[in-house]
Amino acid sequence: MMPASHLLAFAALAIVLIAIPGPSVLFTISRALTAGRRSALFTVTGNELGEYAQVAAVAFGAGALAERSAAIFAIVKWAGAAYLVYLGAQAIRRRQSMTEALAARAAPVAPLRAVRDGFAVGVTNPKSIVIFVVVLPEFTDRAAGHLPLQAQMLILGGLFAAIALVLDSAWAAAAGTARQWLARSPRRLALVGGTSGLVMIGLGVSIAATGRND
Predict the structure, then answer these.
(1) How confident is the model at residue 201 (pLDDT cuts 50, 70, 90)?
(2) Whole-angstrom Cα distance, residue 159 to residue 144?
(3) CA 21 → CA 6, 25, 64, 152, 203, distances in Å?
């Protein structure tokens, strides 16, 4: 088993870390504003699956390798940045076509595509990689009688993903509600489509330009 004190302490820290908007939250908000609440919620699901894939990689050693190797870390960072820029460009290109969907009051993204997009952003998020590599092991217990370290890290990662699912879904719901107001005007919706695209491009550029460079 794991000490309950470790789980509670990690949960408290996870809430603080997740509450600070990062690439996943900003992408979720952009998706909610451009495609609606339902698409954003599927995006959140994919994002948490992507982040849990990071947890599994960290638990079995790949995350530590990425942290030690500047080349591997850079590949992950640039892949995530490039994908965000691509999605942002797509949002800008299609901003006018969004107004044609006003009769249906939404321009939803197919569920599988939303999950796929969320997964891609989550699994390549450099911020969460560093969190899992640096923070996660600190809450494990190597004492005899406890679960193996890999199992403890998977449990802690599952707790992190569950908390993120709740908080990110709240962001998606709030942004989706704002979109309903924006959708009442074709001009507003086209504007938010372009703006959200610029946010995603800016986020991708920011990820590529900042962080570890060693």
Answers:
(1) confident
(2) 23
(3) 24, 5, 24, 26, 12
